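2024-03-11 09:14:02 INFO worker-7 job=invfold-0412 stage=load source=structure_tokens
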């Protein structure tokens, strides 16, 4: 929270990355922890609930990330809305529209606001690109490179999700890329 609230002039690359990583861990541990508590309480009452998070940050593509992240949400959307992020044989345009619609629903599920809708839209665009050939290229890379790609994409998208406004998201992303005001040398 402190990093996302920093004035642009004080935010440097290390702080921006620290803020993004900390938020990525916060949201994972929060959601995964609640899901694990529900699984535990369910077992106490004789119910067997499925895992909801399966090491999503261990994925190598965003498509794989969504096979491991908030599984019950994706299953619900697949079952009740008929959208899936899994590859099926259909026209590329229809596939892209369905993926974007799926991830807009995921964004809407997280609440109203520009940030969650943009976050969902961007996930839909990246998953569409991965399933249009980018994913095959990533799978040919060494596993560490694919993993680095996934972490870069997810952390940048978490910034969009977390930011209070588009301006804050831009400031954070620019700082993460090393283009922050704080990173610029002062001229005398």
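2024-03-11 09:14:09 INFO worker-7 stage=emit residues=188
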């Amino acid at each position: 929270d402190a990093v996302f609230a920093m004035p642009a002039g004080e935010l440097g690359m290390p702080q921006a990355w620290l803020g993004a990583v900390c938020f990525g861990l916060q949201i994972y541990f929060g959601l995964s922890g609640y899901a694990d508590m529900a699984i535990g309480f369910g077992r106490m009452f004789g119910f067997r609930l499925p895992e909801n998070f399966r090491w999503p940050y261990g994925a190598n593509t965003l498509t794989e990330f969504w096979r491991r992240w908030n599984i019950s949400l994706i299953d619900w959307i697949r079952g009740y809305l008929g959208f899936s992020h899994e590859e099926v044989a259909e026209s590329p345009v229809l596939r892209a529209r369905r993926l974007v619609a799926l991830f807009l629903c995921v964004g809407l599920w997280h609440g109203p606001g520009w940030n969650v809708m943009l976050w969902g839209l961007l996930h839909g665009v990246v998953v569409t690109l991965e399933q249009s050939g980018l994913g095959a290229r990533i799978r040919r890379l060494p596993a560490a490179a694919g993993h680095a790609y996934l972490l870069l994409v997810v952390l940048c998208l978490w910034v969009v999700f977390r930011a209070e406004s588009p301006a804050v998201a831009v400031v954070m992303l620019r700082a993460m890329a090393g283009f922050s005001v704080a990173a610029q040398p002062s001229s005398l």
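2024-03-11 09:14:09 INFO worker-7 stage=report msg="The CA atoms of residues 28 and 61 lie 17 Å apart."
2024-03-11 09:14:10 INFO worker-7 job finished
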